[in-house]
Amino acid sequence: MRRSETMSKRILSRSLFRPAQGVDQSILAENNPLIRSLERRLFLRQGLSLGALTLLTGCDISNKDSVQFVLKGFSSWNDRVQAWLFDPTKLAPTFSEAQVLKPPRFNAFYSIDEVKPIDAASWKLEVGGLVKDKRPWTLDRIDALPKVSQITRHVCVEGWDYIGKWSGVSLRRFLEIIEADLSAKYVAFECADDYSGSIDMASALHPQTQLTTHYADEPIGNPYGFPLRLRVATKLGFKMPKWITSIEVTNEYPGGYWEDRDYNWFSGI
User: Fold this and answer.
1) So what's the pLDDT on residue 119?
2) Range scoring the smallest mean pLDDT among 35-49, 121-135, 217-231, 232-246
């Protein structure tokens, strides 16, 4: 057999990188949130849908479970890499007062008309898990703590951003006050609107991470997380729960509203 014929047969033959069946577009559509999340967070910035498919052809890409298994493997790997690269001493860029957006942009998993106002007089912040002082906190008690402020950029996973001025209590200082185990892995949050979220302890202890009570020197309005929201200048917006009602320090992976729907857990910027 001539060399050209041999090469032709090789090109047409099946291999791990050339599946017999085409890509099932319905499976890709179903997993689009995970693909988009990975595109944003992986180093492969030119489109994971192509890069991942090249690797996915080693498995049965017509099988939904196989596709999800590999994509979630990418997501887990990406979380580990981001956590390893995270520098707890590096600060996010800061900006001037003139650049602050007023009011802040609203964003939630529902419309602004569906926001249910919180009664400040009856609101309490519960704390639990690996902490010694589990007494609940009133808003007056939180407001009495020393305040820190920052003017940083808020970046949404959807692609938009704005600059805001955030003021409140350093989360590190708050965790120290309640005598939390700072060697624990996670800090988890529950919210009045049934949202939930969690961050790694290293990010919780970052100098710019705060429990925010004020925006642009005014108390946070009800549509924007009153009376307490999380501000993490080193993460995407969905990692910052609003209308917080409880904080838990734990070594058990707590997940979160969007994380349980296949968004990357670490989600640093």
Assistant:
1) 93
2) 35-49
Maximum Cα–Cα distance across the chain:
87
Q: What is the pLDDT of residue 9?
A: 40
Give residue limits of the domains in the chain: 3-85, 97-261
Nearest Cα to 201, choosing from 214, 213, 188?
188
In this prediction, residue 54 carries a pLDDT of: 47
Please state, rounded to an integer, the average pLDDT across all residues of the chain: 81
| Angle, CA 108 vertex, CA 44 and CA 130 arms, to 5° | 80
How far apart are the C-alpha atoms of 105 and 90, rounded to whole Å?
26
pLDDT at 46 over 70: no
Rounded Cα distance, 162 and 100, in Å: 8
Q: Does domain 97-261 have CATH number 3.30.450.20?
A: no
Measured CA to CA in angstroms, residue 22 lies from 12, 25, 54, 61 at distances of 15, 9, 12, 8
**Could you tell me the two tokens for 67?**
């596709």
CB-based contact 86:235 (threshold 8 Å): no
Q: Which DSSP string do the residues of the chain spell out, in sequence order?
A: --HHHHHHHHHHS-BTTB-SS---HHHHHHTHHHHHHHHHHSS-TT-HHHHHHHHHTTS-TT-HHHHHHHHHHHHHHHHHHHHHH--TTPPPP---GGG--SSPPP--SS-GGGPPPP-TTT--BEEEESBS----B-HHHHHTSPPEEEEEEEE-TTS-EEEEEEEEEEHHHHHHHTTB-TTSSEEEEEETTS-EEEEEHHHHTSTT-EEEEEETTEEPPGGGTTT-EEE-TTB-GGGS-SSEEEEEEESS----TTGGGT--SS-B-
Q: pLDDT at residue 229 above 80?
A: yes
Please state the φ and ψ torsions of residue 235, each to the nearest 5 degrees: -130, 165
